[in-house]
Amino acid sequence: MSDGLFIHLRTHSAYSLLEGALLPDRIVALAAADRQPATAITDTANLFGALEFSQKAAGKGVQPIIGCTIPIDFDDDEDSRVAGHGRKTGRQAPLVLIAANEEGFSNLSWLLSEAYMHSGDGGPIALHHRAVADRSGGLIALSGGAEGPVGIALLQDDDRSAERRLGRLSQLFGGNLYVELQRHGMDAEREAEAALVGLAYRHSLPLVATNNCHFAHEGDFDAHDALLAVADGRPVASADRRRLTPKHAFRSRDDMIAAFADCPEAIASTVEIARRITYRPVTCKPMLPGFTGDGTEGEARELARQARAGLEERLVNHGLAPGKAREIYVERLDYELGVIERMGFPGYFLIVSDFIQWAKNRDIPVGPGRGSGAGSLVAWSLKITDLDPLRFDLLFERFLNPER
User: How buried is 273 (Cβ within 10 angstroms: 0-12 exposed, 13-18 middle, 19+ buried)?
Assistant: First the structure.
């Protein structure tokens, strides 16, 4: 079914801070050495390494798969009470979201921003399942295995919550949901697997085999275990702290195929998912947000208005009455504004000025100006810099030169 292929869909890079120990280029090298045509990065609650990983994977002929592991909040306490349990089913558990296309990557970025915006300062990052309802397009979801929202409910003997959660996920993602199986040798995985398989068959959902990779080889386990101890602020010898297993390494495809020899369909799903991916992040030219709703013409008018008002304030403060000296400043300002508009930089000046004024209004120290930017009268008029370029004979052309 998989023709001897297996694709890793769960890999934590070093961008999963104090959790993963694999740099993006190391992940690519491991996949290429094992002749895996594609591999994924699914860091915890961030896409920090997405572009770097995409560029390095594509450069080595490996298809990059971009995803994210993010805790999903299920508010189904009522289900637990109905089921007669005295304890609450864990509400937050990780789900894996993979961007299948450009829409999916955009939605994944939006969902992460939403999670951070509503998680509070310093609080745990989590996303309410209702937030996914309108942003599931282009996303492939993996159920999270024994640690996921369905698996956690099963391990707490809350079959009703497990059934309802899987039903909700199926409604959200439709044919893009896979029930995830993992075999790292952990008791929880063995306890939950049969029930997960049963739920998948009952809901006509495909199975997928994953390995939650955090380090390169099994021999790296002890060093990574020490990293987790540091992350949790616990002694390495603590018996009750978070631990992984040596099988959380970047296992070879032969090892994974052998581990799931009794469930080849789960291995085949990894290849199927990789074939469904049609997008990867690529570099592009910088894109500045529009400062006004009128496009570039509106930005040029706004820049001229602010610069002329700022220059007038500067000249009044310097005691320059109308006369030849003032005319020199006005002529220089008009010249600079013309160059800035022709070269397409009005929005840039407005944005920088906005940042600088925000800082100054909150007593955040800002330097007087340095480098070639100090030669701009527009920058001085906008209070981006505090050096009068005419007083010190500074050249605007060192900053922006239409001849270059």
Answer: buried
Distance of CA 248 to the CA centre of its chain: 23
Mind listing the pLDDT tens digit for each residue in 3-48? 789 999 999 999 999 999 999 999 999 999 999 999 999 999 999 9
Distance CA 67, CA 141 (A): 9
Strands 127-128 and 139-142: unpaired
Calculated CA dihedral for residues 150, 134, 124, 251, nearest 10 degrees: 50
What are 303-321's pLDDT values in tens digits? 999 999 999 999 988 877 6
Strands (E), 7-62: 38-44
Rounded Cα distance, 182 and 66, in Å: 20
In the chain, the amino acid numbered 205 is L
Which structure tokens are listed for 248? Answer: 């959380």
Tell me how far apart the alpha carbons of residues 302 and 290 are, in angstroms, rounded to a whole number.
12
| Model confidence, pTM | 0.79
Longest CA pairwise span in the chain (Å): 91
| Cα distance between residue 57 and residue 64, in whole Å | 6
Query: Kind of pairing, strands 38-44 and 127-128?
Result: unpaired
**Which residue is it, tokens 């990779």?**
213
Residue 85: which pLDDT band, with cuts at 50, 70 and 90? very low
Give me the residues paired with residue 68 across strands.
Answer: 43, 97
Q: What is the mean pLDDT of residues 319-343?
A: 88
